[in-house]
Amino acid sequence: MSQFPDIREYVALPRVVSLRLSPDGTRLVSVVQSLSPDRSSYGTALWEIPLDAGAEPYRLTRSAKGEAGAEFTAEGELLFVSRRPDETVKDNDENVPALWLLPERGEPRRIASRPGGIGGVQAAGGVVVFAADVLPGDSATEEDRRKARKDAGISAILHEQYPIRYWDHDLGPAQTRLLAGAVRDGLDDAADLTPEPGRALDRASFAVTPDGASVITTWQVFLPNGEMRADLVAIDIATGARRTLATSEGHEFGGPVAVSPDGRHVACTRERLGDRELSTSLDLWVVDLETGEGRALGGELFPTAVAWAPSSDAIYIVADHLGRRPVFRISLDGVVARLTSDDGAYQELCPAPDGSLYALRSAVDSAPRPVRISPDGSVADLPSPTPSLDLPGTLTEVSATAEDGTEIRGWLVVPSEATAENPAPFLLWIHGGPVSSWNDWSWRWNPWLMAKNGYAVLLPDPALSTGYGQSMIDRGWGDWGPVTHADLMAITDECLKRPEIDDQRIAAMGGSFGGYMANWVAGHTDRFKAIVTHASLWNLDQFAGTTDASMYWQREFGAPGSDRYARLSPHNSLDKITTPMLVIHGDKDYRVPIGEGLRLWWDLQRSGVESKFLYFPDENHWVLKPGNAIAWYDTVLAFLSHHVLGTPWTPPESLS
Length: 656
Fold this sequence. Notes:
Elements: E1 2-3, H1 7-10, E2 15-16, E3 20-21, E4 28-35, E5 42-48, E6 58-59, E7 67-72, E8 78-82, E9 98-102, E10 109-112, E11 118-124, E12 127-134, H2 142-151, E13 165-166, E14 169-170, E15 175-181, E16 191-192, E17 206-208, E18 214-222, E19 228-236, E20 242-246, E21 251-259, E22 265-272, E23 281-288, E24 294-297, E25 303-308, E26 314-319, E27 327-331, E28 336-338, E29 345-351, E30 357-363, E31 366-373, E32 379-381, E33 389-390, E34 393-401, E35 407-415, E36 424-430, H3 447-452, E37 456-461, H4 470-476, H5 480-495, E38 501-511, H6 513-522, E39 530-534, H7 540-546, H8 550-557, H9 563-568, E40 581-586, H10 594-606, E41 611-616, H11 626-645
Parallel strand pairs: 1-33, 36-37, 36-38, 38-39, 39-40, 40-41
Antiparallel strand pairs: 2-4, 3-4, 4-5, 5-6, 7-8, 8-9, 9-10, 11-12, 12-15, 13-14, 15-16, 17-18, 18-19, 19-20, 21-22, 22-23, 23-24, 25-26, 26-27, 27-28, 29-30, 30-31, 31-32, 34-35, 35-37
InterPro entries: 6-blade_b-propeller_TolB-like, AB_hydrolase_fold, Peptidase_S9_cat
Keywords: Hydrolase, Signal
Protein name: Peptidase S9
């Protein structure tokens, strides 16, 4: 077990990000992310994960451009997407992702390329279906049209419908299309299944039926006044004919999409579209492919991964549950059984022919690692490219009672050196979402880095958190600030009673919705010595009209100018803020646009509130580049040290 590293060593740790099992259950492959040699970015590679606990994982691919999107064909060959150059092509200077095939023995070869690059890929029944970005119009002239546009210096995009961007990238002018073919026939001439789809396949989740006859995919439907939803459709691979499998005015259907091994059913998620009175919800939706009949299974579980049992009579899902994310087995007749009983957060489910299940297991106190789950629910570690870490503290489950009697629970990280004689300073860390939960390891928001620097960290699940039934979401729906604030203060008060925690040296921070709540806390209490607010919502009316998905927020808050914007916007409590604040924002953040950070910073400055602004011109919602992540933690720790611990302010060396 390795000692827990400092931030500079931490960003260099390899990270297991996916898991795929071959159809015969004999090979397990993962995409692993690691620091590039110049330490300025991350790269990816495919690794073989041994099924024998005594063996060592080994790297399958190695290129400067990296590899991702690993999927097995029915024959056991490995597909992946990469920008790596093709050595068989002279003067090849392409820099867009192409589709590659790696046989079990032999070298990888490129099997398909498109002028705009290739995205996701799925295979079954001898057929490969992949997504590609294609300019509208004749695909035969696309390469020339792209070059002409580039040579003319044109970057403009004409939009005729909402939305125009997503998280950190612009949408258009290319459209996502699905193409299909057989490896043996060559995929450069793959059939276009979805000519001129518009924006219908943006963020599509799709799967191929076992017989290779159809692809099942989500399909965006655009409605009047900027509204939209997603249906589930089946596309005939031979003809391109499309039929709708699931549609509802009050719901949208999303990924992951999974087809049963016997080809009779498809499973996906169904999200209820919330409004001012009705909260959002998510359930498992199963459709009979022959009759089109659909039904919900699993009750109030929010599934985030879906995989069929080899017998086709049950579905495995993972769902947030009381601060964990267990694996559940749901039979087609509706019986729900929890399979894993530990504190793990599972993802990347890979059912094996022998009845076992492979997955990535992580937790608040454990980075993702591959495991085997036996039919009885017991879990065994597999060899991993990620080292086990000796954590600099302990993890304890805590709870408190809210004003309405609801139990509010969370995780408390306490540094190893904290005692009643040497109590640790306290940091309240509020999760994003808002429909989310603290139940997993986060490479980006890691409490153990704060514990290594001496802080006790509370990770609470207040109103709107998942894993506690629909009523927990209902409690805060349309009432974000007041109810959530009361929950946070209740569980904070409970933790501050502990002798190993200093109840005077306390701070709060959060990102995204957690940043919204950090701003709300700043305007409704002066108990904290410092507040850090990252990618935060400040002026709700301004945010709701400039974010990348305005229609989503309008459903809950109403049309611009409604009473909820005024009542719930943190900026209306500016005159109450006296706590020093560190504002952090990335310019490429389209979910919470930079205008929120700029307006908050100016409002604090013009009001005389002691504040600093950490600005990332080239980062999005999360701050992902290793150097910038180091600067983020350096600055946060320096700010907290100054205001919470009383040390002199010194700008971080990483920013000098």
